[in-house]
Design a protein that fits this description.
Number of helices: 4
Order of helices and strands: HHHEEH
CATH superfamily of the largest domain: Winged helix-like DNA-binding domain superfamily/Winged helix DNA-binding domain
CATH architecture of the largest domain: Orthogonal Bundle
Number of strands: 2
Strand content: 5-15%
Radius of gyration: 20 Å
Distance between the termini: 44 Å
Largest sheet: 2 strands, antiparallel
Number of domains: 2
Structural class: mainly alpha
Helix content: 55-70%
Shape: elongated
Length: about 100
């Protein structure tokens, strides 16, 4: 599925599920996801939510979606930092008062 084909499937303010789009267009969900990513990266006003993807109905809707994405990125970065701390601790000879078993 090309980004243009996906854009033709979307409506302003009317979410459609990725599964429904994939089924209607006889493509995989992953192809729809790739096309949606390409649209978003190239500035197409696409928003996503629990009910699916749609063309943003307003600049405010895009602002809200942008903030949701930023919050998600911050959350993921906190998790990355936690994994990095765990990795540093794991690489020490002793961790949390006990020895690790050999892998």
């Amino acid at each position: 599925m090309t980004p243009a084909q996906l854009a033709a499937q979307l409506r302003v303010g009317v979410p459609r599920s990725i599964g429904d789009i994939a089924e209607d267009c006889a493509v995989s969900r992953r192809e729809v996801e790739r096309a949606a990513e390409a649209l978003a990266i190239n500035g197409y006003p696409i928003v996503a939510g629990p009910r699916g993807i749609a063309v943003a109905a307003s600049a405010e809707q895009l602002r809200v979606y942008r903030q949701q994405l930023r919050d998600r990125v911050r959350s993921q970065m906190r998790r990355v930092r936690g994994v990095e701390r765990a990795l540093r601790a794991y690489e020490q000879p002793l961790t949390f008062g006990f020895e690790r078993e050999a892998a």
